[in-house]
Amino acid sequence: MPNNYNPIKHINFSEDDHFKPETHGGGSSKPHKPVTNKFITKVLDSIKELTRVRNFEVSTTIAVIELESKAVAKSHRPTSIFNDKTCPFFGDVGYAKHLIQITPNGLLALEKKITQRNSKQVIKDISAIKSISPYKIDINANPDVKSLSIRLFRFNSAEKNRKLDNEFERFLNNFQCEWKKHASNVVRLYKVSGATKEILDSLPEFAGVQSVISSKCIQLKPMTKERFGVVRPTMNPPLQNHDYPIVAVVDSAISNCAPISDWVVDRKIYVPIAYKNDGHGTFVGGLVTNSFNLNDGDKRFPLCQSKIFSVEVLGNDIGDIHEIIQAMHEVASENPLIKVWNLSLGGDVPVSKTEISTMAIMLDEFQDKFKCLCVVAAGNYEDGLRKWPPEQDLNDGISSPGDSVRALTIGSVAHTNGFVKDLEPSHFSRRGPVSNYVQKPELVHFGGNVIMNGGQQVILGVNSIDANGNAHHDIGTSFSTPIISSIAANLFDKIGEKSSPSLIKALIIHNANLNNDIENEYRPYLGWGKPQGSLDILSVHDYESTMIFEGLAQKSFEIEKLPFPIPNCLRTPDDKVRAEFFITLVYHPELDPQKAFEYCQIDINVGFGKFEKGKFKSEIPREKEKHLFEKDLVKNGDKWSPVKVYKKRFPQGVNIKDWKLRVSVMDRDGYEAEGVLIPFSIALTIRDIDKEKPVYNEMSQLMDQYNWEVSDLAIENRIQI
Fold it and tell me: Do residues 284 and 249 touch, judged by C-beta distance below 8 A?
């Protein structure tokens, strides 16, 4: 590594950087479409149909309102007719499909409101309706499974939720089954064992159930049989008197054999000995501790190493989501200093776009409670070999819990040529996006390839160790994931008290964006690419400057750095700025688990660009076109996404004298965000296109001149390098 690497700078926003912008309220009362007598009759008939099909033995039940595309944005939501006096909104099942609570009295009030339609606003809101229909339970479980995981809806009322829980428990007591309510505070989940066929047959009659899956739906990829033979791996033991960060590996067992046992600081065993299978966990553990050494010193693997806390909760390569989450809570409560949790596991089908998966919601809750970061495998597509680029649309979406928005989700790329080329997505690596078009995976690393020989697949896997301590190779997103986990753990360790899950995510994703140029059409598989190791992530060349801005955003206020200095060495003779810019924003929004498309309740935006005559125009990213509908802004932009990543290159220069960095906030309809503080981290890099100019030194001097509150992000970094 060259000696001219410099530390990243950490900048705090000052009180003077916060201001309250002017607001522009109001809006048109023009209907989204003609409200004819025929349309009114259709809407009223749909309401009457709900009265006939719903089971009102349950106090509150559910219907789905589909809105016109023009009416999805917060400013157009039809709350004059769907509110607490009628049938209020409380969730969604995908784009434009909103859930409402229905009761007999609520439906009567709604029918009256629509019949009278006594204001322009009511008429506009009626025009927003596309259809009204009963909610149908999402059942993804076979009748012969031994146990079910049943998820109930959560309303905006504690009293209604208690009533629903009590009614459902009375329903379950009619069957010869055992049930247990999960302790989660954000999702109501019951594990039910016994009488599963009878219960599945009866569930459609019980309104209030959102979805049903088999509770044992989390799997590990079976290990391949191919081995090198009895070959001892190149795996160094931990150095004496050296402090290593710890990664919690939630997996099958990790072998007690050398050389992996020296890296295991502790273990918690939840699997009976008869079901123990330590092959997968041991292979994953080897990559947490020694990915560089095990893979023949390939410099594309990171040098960083971590020790392991083994959470042994999957027996015979399968696990129960209730037991996995419960085990994680127990271990985290006893070991709160563990900041990174590796989950090389997942379901075998893509996640639904109509809800956030149950395990992902519980992982988000877990990460919030323990202020840690989960690193999750994107999952393996196993219905054949997928060519690159794909020749057809396949059912290869991310598997649960890879849709956890707090987590980092990791895909796989090939590390050598074979069926796909080097650095192309592995044929098995699953793709995003997930609900609300949130990008998953965010990152990739090496997970292997295959080559065809006489019609047979030959594994070209990444190297690690087997349960007997011998060298072994295999493929899967299970094995790209622990490489990122070790990088994340080392970043937490090197940054220390300043570190947070959002900052670590921002640093790794920003580094991937700096060093990869991923085309938009391939981002669903590759995210923002493959990052470097932890030391490279924390280091900056002389020809660039990387700054971390952190703060707490809130509604009705914006945060700015104005003026934002630009090094003179980047200005051309005609005073244009010739440079490239990279920005990564990661923030920590409030979440609503009852919603899929609107899971993230807060949207933070960052803009960097021109300030002239009191007006700001963002160049990175460019200002969004005003005519776009909400779906376009979300799908083609990144509205409501808690990770936003941009880059912009100005090879001919850009004519901007005064630059400004701006952070702003928007909240969802029905969510009261006033006074809520949202943590965010911004990584911003300014780079000389020719990689020659002294950008780092000039930027450091300018920050001192502007009296910014600046410090090195990782103080020990220069010494260690």
Answer: yes
Residues with Cβ within 8 Å of residue 565, at least 6 apart in sequence: 659, 699, 702, 703, 705, 706
Cα 116 off chain centre by: 45
Alpha helix segments (H runs only) across 496-556: 501-515, 523-526, 534-537
Q: What is the 3-state secondary structure (H, E, C) of 160-207?
A: HHHHHHHHHHHHHCCCCCEEEECCCCCCEEEEEECCHHHHHHHHHHCC
Burial profile 698-709: b = 16 or more Cβ within 10 angstroms, e = fewer: bbbebbeeeebe
Can you read off the two tokens belonging to residue 602?
Answer: 């807060």
CA dihedral 130, 135, 137, 138 (to 10 degrees): 20
Q: Which helix (H) or strand (E) is 492 found in, with range?
A: helix 477-495
Long-range contacts, 423-426 (Cβ 8 Å, 24+)? 423/530, 424/388, 425/388, 425/522, 425/525, 425/526, 426/475, 426/477
| Closest listed residue to residue 501, CA positions, set 366, 655, 401 | 366
Closest of 28, 59, 25, 64 to residue 47, by C-alpha: 64
In one letter, which amino acid is 682?
I
Q: What is the CA radius of gyration of the chain?
A: 27
User: What are the angstrom distances between the C-alpha of 259 and each of 6, 73, 520?
Assistant: 36, 56, 42
Q: Are 380 and 429 in contact (CB under 8 A)?
A: yes
CA dist 77 → 88, 89, 257, 294, 637 (Å) = 12, 10, 61, 56, 21
pLDDT tens digits, 408-454? 999 999 999 999 999 999 999 999 999 888 999 999 999 999 999 98
The dihedral built from the CA positions of residue 39, 40, 41 and 47, taken in this order, carries a sign that is positive
Dig out the tokens for 331 from the structure: 């271990």
Cis peptide before 642 (omega within 30 of 0): no
Name the residue with tokens 């923030």.
587
CA separation for the pair 529, 398 (Å, rounded): 16
On whether the CB atoms of residues 673 and 614 are closer than 8 A, the answer is no
pLDDT at position 628: 52
Place of tokens 């690690």: 464
Say which residue the tokens 């926003």 belong to: 13
Residue 391 half-sphere exposure toward CB, CA atoms < 13 A: 4
Q: How far is the C-alpha of 123 from the C-alpha of 668, rounded, in Å?
A: 23
Average pLDDT (675-688) is 94
Do 302 and 491 meet the contact criterion of CB atoms below 8 Å apart? Answer: no
Give, as one character, the DSSP assignment of residue 426: P
Q: Would you state the structure tokens that stand for residue 413, as one six-digit string?
A: 């790329």
Provide the CB-side half-sphere exposure for 601 (13 A, CA): 20
- 10 Å CB burial of residue 116 (0-12, 13-18, 19+) is exposed
Which is nearest to 559 in space by CA: 608, 518, 592?
608
Contact 553, 569 (CB under 8 A): no
- Average pLDDT across the chain, whole number: 92
* SS (HEC) of 303-371: CCCCEEEEEECCECCEECHHHHHHHHHHHHHHCCCCCEEEECCECCCECCCCCCCHHHHHHHHHHHHHC
pLDDT of 378 > 70? The answer is: yes
pTM of the model: 0.94
- Give the Å distances, CA to CA, from 45 to 39, 50, 111, 131: 10, 9, 10, 11
Alpha helices for 335-476 (secondary structure H): 358-370
